[in-house]
Amino acid sequence: MACPISVSKFVGTVSLGLLTGLSFSTSAITIPALQLLPTATTAARSLNEVKRLSRRYALRLSFLTNSCFCFAWCLSSPRRRHPYMVWLWAFSTLSAHGVDFWFNRHLGFKNWVSAVIRDVSHFSLTEAKKDEDLVVVETEDEVNGETVQREMGRERNLHRVRAWLSGIALSIGIVGLWGDKLYILFQITQSLLSPLKSIPGPFWARFSNLWYFNRLRKGRFEHDNIALHQKYGPIVRLGPKHYSINDATSVKKIYGPGSKFAKSAWYDSWKHPAQWTVFSDRDIKRHSETRKRFTSLYSMTSLVHYEPFVDRCADLFVERLNEFAENGKTFDLGYWFQCYAFDVIGNITFGERFGFLDEGRDINGAISALHKVIMHSTLIGVYPEWHPRLFGILSKFKSSGAGGRAYFIKFVQDKLKLREELGVESEGRTEDFVEKMMIARAKDPEKVTDYHLFIMGQSNVMAGSDTTAISLSSIMWHLLNYPETLRKLRDELDEFTSQGRCGTSPSFKESQEMPYFQAVMKEALRMHAATGLPMWRTVPEGGAEIHGQFMSEGTVVGINTWVAHYDESVFPDARAFRPERWIEAEAWPGKLKEMNQMYMPFGLGSRTCLGKHISILEMSKVIPRLVQEFDFVPLRKTWRTENFWFVKPVDFEVRVKRRIQRS
User: Fold this and answer.
1) By three-state DSSP, how is residue 550 classified?
2) What is the dihedral of CA 117, 121, 123, 124, to 10 degrees?
3) What are the binding positions for heme in this chain (predicted)?
4) 104-142 tens-digit pLDDT
5) Which of 243, 292, 562, 641 could, after both became Cys, cross-link 222 (CB 3.0–4.6 A)?
6) Is 609 labelled a binding residue?
């Protein structure tokens, strides 16, 4: 499979070829030709120009070669770090820097290093002009012809030695490149002879994951994926071994309870290389055992205990909206939804808000760091073997995705340390997640360990804000763009309030009894699911048949939530926001079952999002209040989103005013 490692080696080898050609032509053609010039002065000037340019380009070509092979070495797996790359690097360095120093050793090491740095670096036109101004123009009488002849001989010998050494390095590189070509040829042959070769898809996706990587990089893959299925059918090739599926009958087989389809290696990039987490764990048995330790914390029956945590954040969120209503300023509602979701998850997990709603800013750059983590994990997951090799280096840079993950690891560890200092005395207050886990750990330290406490905290913090904020944004965006739906929802809320079935701040139980509100939430999450990439799974031992096509063991398949939600065979007029479809389907149990089977905003089966009920709780508590108390006016008729696993709106700018005056 063609990849940046092979490309890097190819570029480095081509650079060596240019270096060899430069040195050979200079020694065999250019310098001998200078001897034919009519005067010593002209020959001296020409020789100086040849020396200057050949030195500069030789050092730059060598630098490019060494950089390419160092890059390839760092990215290669241990078994592919062949010693030939070290020998090539050594001969390349000797041919350029070694030879150059030997023939210019009279300058002294420090002066030579300064000259190398100057010649390798990029010269501006101004600097080049200064160099020209420093040239001393000698008269013909001042130039010694014999001295010029000696300098020509010396320069010719330099390039002869350089040509020999770089030629040796080039030979090594060609042999190594030939090995890579055989590997690439093997991959191409394997692709052409594969029993799955008939599956359609983009041409380049047949040979390399680079096509998929490039489409992901553009951040619009949910739309690309839908278009690909419309063009090619229910099974589409996205890579040499990656296939996107759009088939309702395959959902249960791939994601259903008891499925042997484990998560693919793409999920390895969503964790520290030395750790495992609930979300990224590819071990089906271990994941099942871990999930059992946490299930009670996230169950529907536990939600009533967490409702006060959500109420406090919802009250503060409403206060912030009142401030915006009073000052008339525009603001990004999507950003404030994330502040709300972050503070709720902090309250539920650690018993305290993180302070996003209090301060109205990205505290310690947490939201920015989370975005970098998600982008990094999404892209590096295409080549998961790179993740452990790059993580150690990139984690030292705070601006990187790996640095963002390191930040959150420390953030959670610090929060847990502070929370443990408070102990488990919970008299007079609601137990948070950490406290419940600490009590369970005290009862059975072997079943619930410190690491289980850590991965619970990390999962909540890193996965608990984006998904909920996106879902909240989707609900409000569609309500604002469909005034009739907004009117119907307000009528339902007014009816429930007038009948005494709910207050101005409906409880979770009360909101669950509102059929139109439930339909609005469900339809908004269908129209704009939080995740927008295939949920990759690996075909288990023995292979499996999907939509009549046998998939061999190790093949990677996945269904994209957006593709499923926009399947016209399941959701007629799928691009229309119509909450009524869910209410109407209740009269047709078979149709409703089919719709629910393809409805997957929180995943499916044993891998269903643990925080699903908490996310629904957050939406159920705040949306009715916003709809009743405020009027929002979006500044744009469309919004822009970025899809790096999470399909996040980035410009949900609005103005707000109150509908109900505060007492």
Assistant:
1) strand
2) -120
3) 609
4) 888 788 887 887 777 666 544 444 444 444 444 444 456
5) 562
6) yes
